[in-house]
Amino acid sequence: MLNLFFVLAILSFVAFILMLVIRVQIIKCHNRITNPSRFTVFLSWLLILVFFGSLGGIIYGVSNPGTLPHFHYNRHKQEILQTKLQEKKADHLSKKVKFAWTPVEPSLNADGIAKVSFILPQNTQVRVIGHNSGMIYAAFSSGKQPTKHQVRLNSAGDYDVKVTTGSKTTMYSLSVADQQ
Question: Domain boundary at 76, 94, 112, which?
Fold first, then answer.
């Protein structure tokens, strides 16, 4: 589409210049100035509108590259770059530990127990460690499939959650609130 705007702009510009040259030649040959015909005036204005419309299309196409279809080469090159960017982004995300627990802010219930569900990606080891005591309250892992584990904590306080996926280890802070 962008190449169509280039062609229209060039053709309209050349046709307009050609009309002006012919008009000047007519004036020189007859040695007098005559009024142009209505068709000549109409065609001149049409060529001017087509030229500036094409320039607007070119400017829009260049400033918003994804909206108008471009040359096949450019579109193919853009698709390759987009694919490489998506692969790089997916590779970066796969290296990140995807881990979560619910509820986000757990608290002790009426029985004095806080139930926390951990969602683990595949091949992940988790340890729930007391922040001040260093005591391990829970340790579990997932195999080749993402899994969900539930842990019961019977005291309010701060806990460190150590998540290991492959060689990457990440520490999280889990705070269990007292009964409300």
Answer: 94
Question: What is the rounded (10 degree) CA torsion for 17, 23, 28, 31?
Answer: -160
Q: Are 159 and 137 in contact (CB under 8 A)?
A: yes
Q: Are residues 44 and 116 in the same domain?
A: no
Q: What is the pTM of this model?
A: 0.45
**Count of domains forming the chain:** 2
Write down which residue in 94, 120, 143 finishes a domain: 94
147 touches 123 (CB < 8 A): no
The position carrying tokens 């169509």 is 4
CA 26 to chain centre: 59
Residue 8, classified by CB atoms within 10 Å of its CB into exposed (0-12), middle (13-18) or buried (19+), is: middle
Q: Residue 80's pLDDT is what?
A: 67
